[in-house]
Amino acid sequence: MKEEHKKVTSKPLEDPATKYPRPPYQEQTQPWPGLAGKMTPVPDHGEKSYVGSGRLAGRKALITGGDSGMGRAAAIAYAREGADVAINYLPDEEPDAKEVIELIKKAGRKAIAIPGDLREESFCKKLVEDAVKGLGGLDILVSNAGRQQTHESILDISTAQFDWTMKTNIYAPFWIIKAALPHLKPGSVIIGTTSVQATDPSAELYDYAQTKAATTSFVKSLAKQLGPKGIRVNGVAPGPIWTALQVSGGATMEKLKQFGADAPLGRAGQPAELASIYVQLAASDASYATGQIYGAAGGNGQP
Ligand code: NAD
Ligand code: MG
Asked: Where is the region Disordered (predicted)?
């Protein structure tokens, strides 16, 4: 019997509390939607660290918000696990997206870039069509794009702003999943990015937090609806993660400087620290996991 699995090089233990930069973080702000490449420090999406082992060989994945943050970490990991990957992002995010496309290609996989605004139903339909065409099918859908703007008071949230959050975080997944469903065969998966905000909403994230409760809810509802069809639906619930969304209106400057300080690990998380969760939920060996919310929040906020 071959014992290939035993050929592993040992790695030193890493202390999760000190593995990444700790607060206080440098004051910074960017116009929305922000670029990961312009953050200080630049977030870790696993560019130098993620090592694949064929867990998603031959899969075809579409990831919204795949240019930066959790979506980028998932895109890099998926490609290195053997999947072809299409990413959606906003035209303003082209510099971040270009880097992700290069990384997917470097992993030897097909990379499809589909920029566009998810607040339009017609674009959501076209996004799925283009992804299916480009990838030659679809079996992993990661609905990850999100809009988060901090407002001290409900009185500061205009109807237009409220609508923007709802369109991005609730309508777009609805439109995209509807368009994708006819293409998803048994064994396919849908993964939504929810948040600890779904269950522990912050005072200043009135509109955003309720969209994340909606995400957790649609994951559980759809899991029941699609289980009999062999399609699994799960959610990832991050805690405070160092991403462009937080420096482009998502957090107050005070919160940003101390981001994650109140978590038991004492720091913000990095997108790379969630990559393996997106992989795990997509992999075929997770075949009994559906309707689940998997979290990574530094010790706070259980999903
Ligand atoms: P991010 O800014 O890197 O990614 C969000 C992405 O959403 C953007 O890159 C952008 O491409 C996309 N997007 C936003 N509006 C869009 C629109 N109208 N059309 C098309 N694309 C649009 O930030 P992130 O933190 O990685 O966010 C990814 C997901 O994680 C979001 O759903 C967010 O709510 C969730 N989340 C983030 C945190 C955190 O602390 N960073 C915590 C919990 C959940
Ligand atoms: Mg981005």
From this structure: 1-51
CA-211 nearest atom, ligand 1: 34
What pLDDT does residue 225 have?
98
Distance CA 98, CA 117 (A): 17
The DSSP-derived string for 180-216 is HGGGPPTT-EEEEE--GGGTS--GGGHHHHHHHHHHH
291 burial via Cβ count (<10 Å: 0-12, 13-18, 19+)? middle
Ligand 1 atom index nearest CA of 119: 18
| DSSP SS3 for 296 | strand
> Which tokens is 218 given?
């649609």
Domains of the chain: 55-237+272-296 (3.40.50.720)
Tens digits of per-residue pLDDT, 132-168?
Answer: 999 999 999 999 999 999 999 999 999 999 999 999 9
Closest CA to 287 of 215, 219, 226, 231: 231
Any ligand 1 atom below 6 A from CB of 114: no
Is ligand 1 within 6 A of the CB of residue 68?
yes
Of all protein residues, the one whose alpha carbon is nearest to atom 7 of ligand 1 is: 145
